[in-house]
Amino acid sequence: MLKQIVPGTSGGEAARRLARICKVLAVDTRVRMLEMLSHRQMCVGALARALCITPAAVSQHLRVLRDAGAVVADKQGYFVHYRADPATLAAWGRETAAFFGAGQAGPEPAEGGDAP
Description:
Elements: H1 11-25, H2 28-37, E1 42-43, H3 44-51, H4 55-67, E2 71-76, E3 79-84, H5 86-100
Antiparallel strand pairs: 1-3, 2-3
Helix pairs in contact: 3-4
């Protein structure tokens, strides 16, 4: 059962926030980037090598993550190092958990398979 997204917010505002979170996380490369950046700071070149994609593709994904507040940029000399913003990720976790009713007993999955 789906729950109220964020108590104390209007339904439209909360729905827009949840939709934005889902849109940002809908691309597996961005999820992988957030995973790496939650452990250590990395520059575009290091992310490109680790993900086996072009630096231009990394930059495009980082723009989406920065615009959403999920990563923070830190200029160090000629390079910009990125790291995940733990406060934003924690807020996203709370909002999605509240919406999906984490910790609540839900219906059992249908026999013979998992839920979609």
